[in-house]
Specification:
125 residues, mainly alpha, 6 helices, 0% strand
């Protein structure tokens, strides 16, 4: 019978533990992206409602510009927001974005004309 590996160690020798594997650093901008992408991905529901109820006089292509502007600004602003987050200003970006999103969604509920929807939902969210 072969001796166990522990018996082969001398009294003064220490066992070598395997290196600690840490997960990659967490990127907080991922939380913001999930929040905004979900709202932008569901714009088709808003567009169908606008076409049938709120903006019946507008063409579907002009209503689609609201969602297109929304998605463009999401990706365009990420250039500036990501640099601020890299500088450690996550709390400022998160608080400002949350307030802007809440106010914009609330303002969208009061809109009655096309330009109001472009400002409130297209630019604000």
């Amino acid at each position: 019978m072969a001796p166990s590996p522990r018996r082969l160690l001398r009294r003064n020798e220490r066992t070598v533990s395997p290196p600690l594997l840490l997960p990659p650093p967490f990127d907080p901008s991922l939380l913001l992206t999930f929040n905004l992408r979900g709202l932008n991905q569901s714009y088709g529901v808003f567009q169908a409602y606008y076409e049938t109820v709120l903006l019946r006089t507008q063409s579907p292509s002009s209503i689609a510009w609201i969602g297109s502007l929304q998605i463009f600004l999401l990706f365009f602003m990420s250039i500036f927001v990501s640099t601020q987050m890299d500088k450690g200003r996550f709390q400022h970006c998160f608080t400002g974005g949350s307030i802007l999103l809440t106010v914009s969604v609330l303002a969208t509920s009061f809109c009655t004309q096309y330009w109001q929807f472009v400002l409130a939902q297209g630019i604000g969210t």
